Amino acid sequence: MNILIIGASFAGLTAAMDCQKRYPQATIYLIDKEESIGYFPNALNWKVKGEISSWAEARVGYFEGLEQSVLHFLFGWECISIESVSKKIRLKKEESTRELSYDYLILAMGAQQVWEHQSVDLSEKILTSKSIAQAQKSFEKLEEAESVTVIGAGQIGLESLEALSRLPLKLRLMESQEWPLAKYFDQEMVAFIWNEFERIGLDYHFSETINEVSLNELGQVQLSSLQGTYLSDFVLLGTNFRPHTDLVEGLVDLHTDGSILVDDYLETSQSGIFAVGDLIRMPVTMFGQAYLPMINHAILTGRLVAENLLAKKKPLRAVERIVSTHVFGYNLTSVGLTEREANLWLDTSSIRIQQAFSQWDEETIDFKMVVSRKDGRILGGQLVSTSDHIAQMNVLALAISKEMTVEDLLQEAWLCLPRRTDLQPFLVEAANRYLWQKEDRE
């Protein structure tokens, strides 16, 4: 049995590792057009911040075990075509080509950042770290840069801005939304970030959309919006992720956003061809299907595809949207719906609790829970803290996915909450406050 895996990022690596365990007699090929694989996408930020001294420190730990396995590695080889009838793929490396046959093909090519408003090739002017080679090249560019514009104030954009603020650069931020992290946090929860922008001397522009990108006569990037024109040496994209599906266009069915249509067991419209990771949409509680390119989703689907390869045993379940980041000394986690999202079709109540602990503890917590007024169902939660409480937020995500009410959280989920943590009383107090508000309304 031949199993071919195209793409050796988190989804591909996980699929390879699990296929090796489940099918020890199979011949497994792991293919990627990059020579060096298995690196975290945060490598560039870590290097800029001095958190790693060498690029090797940014490598994924469990990849070392795969190197000693019986897997066949074809790195530096690019898949240029797939023939589903004969079950063959064609590969190219420089001037060499080769063909491989498959019984099962796993597509794990990941995502790419696309910029649709450029009139010229800007590849040399864009900073990216999708691969370790790109991260190294971007790091070299920063050594000669005087100005950088970050497009997008989401998770990637903010983490990049914090890293770049350590360098002697003139920084600019362009964002079409009204405030940072607007997809995942309500405005008041991220108000502290404005002070951080002022502290690092950031030139920021919100509610402003870039609609044209070009190069001026001096070779600088020229960004144009309805409000103005801005020049920069380099641009870092923190948005516009698209699935890397050019290879399979016309071969398998795609959604309108370019992601691959799969069934509950990750099989595409072509029998024997599966897709995982950033190539597919995920079923998300309260969102239907959504395109959410995240590492945890890549690992989840990489494991699941190995289980379903020979027989469809375990369907892909709906996941809870949970986003976590660390910027400017704060941990930020969002699960479920924001209040702004929930209010689009539901009557909601929100409970916000803020507390600054003693100077010895040096911790602050800002917690918000969004609840449906009609039935008390928990819809979402947001946490900003100087400490990491993602374990407790995962419990809240589980409560949301099970459609628990506030009463359920107090009576049942309480047993699951880690004890003697700072977040525990906040969840309880938020639940009780909602019940008190409900009594007052009635």
Automatic annotation (TrEMBL):
One of its GO terms (molecular function) is oxidoreductase activity. Its cofactor is FAD. Residues 325-411 form the Pyridine nucleotide-disulphide oxidoreductase dimerisation domain. InterPro entries: FAD-bd_OxRdtase (IPR050260), FAD/NAD-bd_sf (IPR036188), FAD/NAD-binding_dom (IPR023753), FAD/NAD-linked_Rdtase_dimer_sf (IPR016156), Pyr_nucl-diS_OxRdtase_dimer (IPR004099). The keyword Flavoprotein applies. SUPFAM superfamilies: FAD/NAD(P)-binding domain, FAD/NAD-linked reductases, dimerisation (C-terminal) domain. Keywords: FAD, Flavoprotein, Oxidation, Oxidoreductase, Redox-active center. Residues 2-280 form the FAD/NAD(P)-binding domain. Belongs to the class-III pyridine nucleotide-disulfide oxidoreductase family. This is FAD-dependent oxidoreductase. It comes from Streptococcus iners subsp. hyiners.
